[in-house]
Write a structure and sequence with these properties.
This protein has a domain at 10-131: 3-Layer(aba) Sandwich (Aminopeptidase), CATH 3.40.630. The longest helix has 17 residues, at 50-66. A hairpin with a 3-residue loop joins strand 1 and strand 2 (15-18). It has six helices and eight strands. It has an eight-stranded mixed sheet, with helices on both faces. The protein is α+β, with helices and mostly antiparallel strands.
Length: 187
């Protein structure tokens, strides 16, 4: 994963996962500028501005160039609408990655993120040959855990009062899937 490598495009039944572009900035702002999105994430502020979107694009492009991150925009196949983002932060030393994602509120509950996670797990294990992919959610957002479970991810820990957000300590619930576990569920 370097600037020399072509950025992958992943397709599912209803989605296209591809490289976020500067032309996506207005859509990124429109979807991310939501207090509910900020409430369930650690790194998306509210209000969310154009400068925030440009900084995010710069960060994920740098991660791609360094081989430490691959982040996709999530778009619908039917109208190519930007609906969110999903990606992997890769730890080469330990051959694992942290899965992260967010989805615009108008698209919650339609199974889109479940579908996108499936594509990312396939990519991470079969293209990047990762040993393990892990993800977490903050207490108060159990729907995020449900989409992980729908993809076979296994709850492995609750980190009590692990993060501080808006002056309040919150617990983190962590999930995992190893390559061996992944292969056993896709038979």
């Amino acid at each position: 994963m370097t600037a020399k490598n072509k950025f992958p495009v992943l397709k599912t039944d209803r989605l296209i996962l591809s490289k976020p572009l500067v032309s996506d900035v207005p859509d990124i702002v429109r979807q991310a500028n939501n207090k509910k999105i900020e409430a369930f994430t650690l790194n998306i502020p509210h209000p969310y501005s154009e400068d925030d979107a440009v900084s995010w694009l710069n960060m994920i492009n740098q991660g791609w160039n360094e081989g430490s991150q691959v982040t996709f925009k999530v778009s619908t196949k039917t109208d190519k609408e930007f609906i969110g983002a999903i990606g992997l932060k890769i730890n080469k030393r330990f051959n694992h990655a942290e899965l992260g994602y967010w989805l615009g509120e108008d698209f919650w509950g339609a199974g889109f993120i479940t579908e996108a996670i499936g594509a990312i797990l396939n990519y991470g294990f079969n293209q990047l040959n990762l040993h393990k992919i892990h993800a977490h959610y903050m207490e108060g957002n159990p729907a995020s855990g449900k989409v992980m479970e729908k993809n076979g991810m296994i709850r492995e820990a609750e980190l009590k009062d692990h993060v501080k957000k808006d002056g309040k300590y919150l617990s983190i619930i962590q999930y995992r899937l190893t390559q061996e576990e992944y292969k056993s569920i896709i038979k």
